[in-house]
Specification:
- By secondary structure, the protein is mainly beta.
- The chain is built from no helices and 13 strands.
- The chain has two domains: about 60 residues, no CATH class; about 100 residues, Immunoglobulin-like, CATH 2.60.40.
């Protein structure tokens, strides 16, 4: 995987081996700091079994803000062999545990996490936020929820962190389907 800047120079790269049958993965790009601007992310995959090569490219924009945005979903349950796996689909089953991580700055401290119904009212399901420092240098605000007590429907996971005296609030939507 290559990250190419506007001048055509390589700004970062990453490499991973993905085991056969894996449905999702996460690859880190080094270096961790990038100048604001537009980049071209180029991904090349080669099948070990057939040596067939697949290429894809997508344009991304890195903003001038200090923190990241977005959320990563993970699921654990009977369908995953009770192992935690990355999830691209925000639909989950009641038999699963949901874990959500959002980017955090080096000074972020957890300030709370709540499970909200579709009208924004807090539910009486305990959620404990924490900070996760990954070996690749990334830092994440983390929250986990057992979904068994929930009925099928739409929900929000609210995560709050405090960085340099400023509270940051992230709302992450997901759906329980059965």
């Amino acid at each position: 995987m290559l990250l190419i800047d506007a001048s055509g120079q390589t700004a970062g790269s990453g490499r991973a081996t993905i085991a056969p049958g894996t449905r999702s993965t996460r690859v880190s790009i080094a270096p961790r700091t990038l100048a604001p601007g537009e980049y071209d992310l180029r991904v090349r995959a080669r099948s070990a079994a057939t040596s067939a090569v697949s290429n894809a490219s997508v344009r991304i924009v890195v903003s001038a803000g200090s923190g990241g945005s977005g959320a990563l979903f993970f699921r654990r349950g009977p369908a995953t062999g009770n192992r935690e796996v990355a999830a691209a689909d925000p639909r989950f089953r009641r038999s699963e545990t949901l874990r959500v991580v959002v980017p955090a700055s080096p000074s972020t401290a957890p300030a709370g996490a709540w499970l909200l119904d579709r009208t924004g009212k807090p539910l009486a399901i305990p959620i404990t936020p924490s900070i996760v420092d990954e070996p690749d240098g990334s830092r994440w605000l983390n929250a986990q929820a057992a979904l068994a007590p929930l009925a099928p429907g739409d929900y929000l996971l609210e995560l709050r962190g405090v960085a340099d005296g400023v509270e940051q609030r992230t709302l992450v939507p997901f759906r329980v389907i059965s």
